[in-house]
## 1
Amino acid sequence: MNRNQGLEKGDSLWTGCRLFMAEGDRGIVEDGAIAVKDGSIWWAGPASDLPKERVAPGGKVFRVGGKMVTPGLIDCHTHLIWAGSRAREFEMRLRGASYEEIARAGGGILNTVEAVRLATEDELYRQSARRVQSLLEEGVTTVEIKSGYGLATGAELKMLRVAKRLGNDFPVTVIPTFLGAHALPPEYTGRPDAYIDLVVEEMLPAVAAEGLAAAVDAFCERIAFSPAQVERVFSAARDLGFRVKLHAEQLSDQKGALMAARFDALSADHLEYLLRDGAEAMAEKDTVAVLLPGAFYFLREMKKPPVHLLRELGVPMALSTDCNPGSSPCTSPLLVMNMACVLFGLTPREALLGMTVHGARALGIQDRVGRLAAGKAADFVVWDVEEPVDLVYPMGGNPCSMVVRGGRVVVDRRNGVRSGRLQ
Ligand SMILES: [Zn+2]
């Protein structure tokens, strides 16, 4: 098909849009249009500039009525595949136990590991599908999903196969990440290096052979793995052609971000304890800072990530739900954007950029998604609001009118969006 021919039958045109653009001062095109062809954006911009002579009659037209249209949201850091519940642990924490104390007592992640190991692939799929559906209904069209609750070769592969199935069955692009070095499984207590051997020698080659992951992640922390242990995982990952990312500086400064940047990491995530040296290394290597205010809130942390420093150095800031059972049981990207503004001091525009263009960069897929621009996938959301601040201000409620993925309407609440045929 020749994309220069313009819009034909079967294509669609979206008009009356307030377009949220990644570029420009305010970044809103007030009377905008999007032309969709073959599942991609063929043209986006001010309606007055639309090349009308190349829009043939017969195509579908959607009149949005002045609502804001953003790129499909990108949730770039989730652990949304799990079995069981951590509600009891939540009660423990409400009574005063810390995340670290719970982890050291054999609770926390290991609680979920046991449930995931026992669950069949179908059981895991069923529990996790609900969470994907919730994200989709709030405008998520791309979600990253990590393994890391199996911590044994078979169970890690099982999680990644579930991720793949979710991507096949839901109108959401799933980007799978292998997180074998998430926690030390109980059978390796006192032998972390032996577990890293297993990750490097058995798990990583198996994941690569089945093509089940797009990147490799690790948890660098006192309660998880040291920078030296993570380096071994990253070296092996790099040799197999994987990009890496890291849970870094969440509970203490381990110089994880610094090390991740040395491996040209796509992102370093959490970063509450990040110092200038790590931030400078990230800036130099274009490593995205993924901020996770859901975990900060849920764990009642006090130390905030150094947002001023990241801004000063020009480190792109992405935002994500961190959807996971222990520290962020959250499937609301809208609430996360609100938290990022209230708790971390982001502007509403920064929050939305963090869930779109910078989320895409954190996954290395910015050439395909994250912007309303020609050549990108036609993944976008029509919101029943006018400005980013209207989206970020409320706590609760869902103003999503429509979700479009690959040019197809996949969520349709149709609040005032009219459709017809181009004359
Ligand atoms: Zn995480």
Note: The first strand starts at residue 12 and ends at 20.
## 2
Amino acid sequence: MNMISIILAFLLVSCGTKTINTLTSKPVALPQYKVVEHVVYPGKVKKLRISQPEVGSDHELICGDKKLSSLKNNDQIEAFFSVNYKYLEKNKNKIIPCYVNSLIGGQRLNFHVFNLHVKPFNYPKSFIKVAKKHVDLSPEDLQRFLGEKEIINKVYEVSMHTPKLFKKDFIKPLKSKITGVYGSRRVFNNKKDSWHSGTDFRARTPIPIPSSNDGVVAFAGDLFFNGNAVFVDHGMGIITMYCHLSKINVKIGDRVDQGTIIGLSGNTGRSSAPHLHWGVRVQNHWIDGLQFLQEQKEEGLVAYHHKATDKK
Ligand SMILES: [Zn+2]
């Protein structure tokens, strides 16, 4: 650490809301945000927007200890934040703070903008019968499953760095009856306790399945549980997944548009009847796709500056 950065670090600590512009050596007034309090639910998505960060550059949005995959324009940061379905079972702290992280005068500074309060959501519980081999995995099947998991985990990792590839709102892949809702706690053969990480659409006979939005095919192939499956990476930390297909029309690396037919519905993998399982993954969590379709149209949770004239 040279002398200038020691002085700068001292000034940052002592001034709190002032820093030094290294080009002009003049103090720069830092923006002050009002911390917006908001309720969020496990398995649901919240759209976050921060307008006009004003100072600094290379803005990032950090919630908890996670850097969000976000869309950055000159005067706005936009991101879809998601809460893990099992968040409340795994975390004692029910408040997730969010920060705008900005590069100012060579320093990375955090501005506290949101407190997201995680509250429980009551998902239904159901009992399902499936083939025994899909509950009690043989050593070979377990080996296969673990191998697939490794491949898919890479897909997830890459998706966090994919820039936004879509222009329009996401759409439902089918308009048919929903036969399985997101989030239902599922007990397989009265044994394995699981939960439903997507939305099931009725598709009794093989029907064409369109991509929910523009993106790039991140995986296309046969998986132990999902059967023939296609994963589309849309950027901004969003993936859609189409499972149990009877036929796959695309291959890894293909660019698809909203509406491109990625395959035909079917009954492959761990499936008790022909249907389409549609999964939506946001910031590395499988979330409620139907809720996401609504949330994407919302203005989002907006951070705003604290003005000197504001009453406390
Ligand atoms: Zn399903």
Note: The first helix runs from residue 3 to 15.
